[in-house]
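Section 3.1 - Work completed
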Amino acid sequence: MLATLVDAPFNRPNWIYEEKYDGVRILAYKEGSRVSLISRNAIDRTDRYRSIAQAVQKLDADTLLVDGEVVIFDARGVSRFQLLQRGEGEPKYAIFDCLYLNGQDLRRKPLAERRRLLESKIHLAGGLQLSSKLADDGLKAFRIASRRGLEGVVAKNLDSVYESRRSRQWLKFKVHHEQEFVIGGFTKPKGSRIDLGALLLGVYHNRELQFAGKVGTGFDDETLRALRRKFQPLLQSKSPFANDTQERDVTFLKPVLVAQISFTEWTDDGRLRHPVYLGLRDDKKAKDVRRED
């Protein structure tokens, strides 16, 4: 179940307001002693997050399916995608929903009941934690998120059932704009920069990749070298973008890699303002990347 982006915080009765984490969405399955951690594009991540899988294995449930986010927190307790992407720190699993428990399918139960069962029946430890409820009031939750420097707030209707799609029963409002973009090329390096200059970014609209701007900050030398190695087998002469990038000295790429980018806003002509590169994502297909409005 995915949340729909809205442009402003709000407060509504019978809604819950949770911290929006900056990590990787994971479903955790437990059947007896067997545990699987599955990403949103159905890739098995059990080996990657072995410590979390071991913690789920110890939970007191014969069968279990929970939904949550794998994150790494910085020194101030704020989740950072860059830390997770670089493996800098101990990953945690923030669980916010329970879909199956001991053979019972809970997806048609209201969220309030699913959350209550999660809190009362599942004792979390060893890298597992409940998602943080910021406040009972959505506007207050937004102020808390802003003060702490969180990515944003996820608001959920406590009467909502669990649907495997994007829903308006779960809404999100962001403190910082951040989303995925497809990498369609790069420019030549300038000055002391090595390997490459800026990345050309795009989003899909009507099955066409639309140029959304370029990002030239957020890299260190090691990241630049690693990206250049990943780009090498993807080089192509033709632009993957349906519209003109108006950029010179560009090397185009097959549009398969997805980057996480933070930015301040969209310009009127559909370009990113002040973008910063955060890392690559492998849990979302390039063709699924759309502009979040």
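Second construct:
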Amino acid sequence: MKKRVLAILFALVLMVGVVAACADDTPAAPAPAPAADAPAADAPAADTPAADPPPAAAAGGTMRGIFITQDLSNASQAFSAKLFEELMGDFDAEIIIAGGDVADNIASIERAIADGLDVIFTNPNDTESVIPALERAREAGIIVGLFSHEPPEDMIDTFPYDFFAGSDDALGGIQAGEFVSQNFPNGANFVEVGGQAGHIAAIKRNEGFREGIAANIVELDSKFVPGPWPAAEARSIMEDFIVMYGDEIDIVWCHWDNGASGVIEAVLASDLDIADIFIIGVDGNSVGYQQVKDGVQALSVGQSFRGMALKSLELARTIFDGGSIATKMNWVPLDMVTIDTLDDFPWPEW
């Protein structure tokens, strides 16, 4: 009898040990951030159709990821982070947010690898600096999506990423250049207040504008800001241009709408007449829209960050569930916002 009791007790101990071991081997999932009801989405990119998120999300379970971007003092990146938090629930995803400088970007990628996340969405400060870390992430089986930050043209096939979703910055520059040429058929002079030096978006906007302008649109000068797209540095550059060129300036090609705010402040503080200067910005944020409405900015080349976030989540979800995507490069359409078209677009949320 004693032997039978001891055998039963021994079996019970083994069962408890097995249960405890199984519990210890199961990694704890991070608590999901609260998701707000997502407002109506912008039109998806024309080259790949939008997926139906809820059924797709059910296929592979919860997708754990991180959005790694530039300093969150950058309004477009703060808004993009907010969009990921709002929209992730529609894709059964848990997304954490990490902003900062180049070193922070690399550290966040390493953190994603250590935590065994499923996907990295990133708009890094510097493309080349993150390559080794992203290579390690992909070797670890992590899906890598570039958000609003396309790979270098000579690395489209070799850069360590699974997809890109964003605006065609070169096309935005071309369209801005064509717009200028249409409005100045007899020629004019321009200065360029460029975005963050070395950033792929700034490089593409610089090149695209020169491709779009007519031969009689003449460059006086061009300078890029050293930091992550601050309006104060754009104002400083414009103040220098005003001192050097004065009323020779007809057009200001500024790479971002908040930078255009700095340009406008510099002009208003000078002896120049704001009505005589044709100022163009990029982004399509509420600041740009308001400046167009006020008549101090001629054009805002609008990006749809909501469209980018939706496309990024859709593509990542498809890959996570074992599906295939039509193309790595996914373009989200641009809006040409002028005083005549302002009412054709919804007022931006950022």
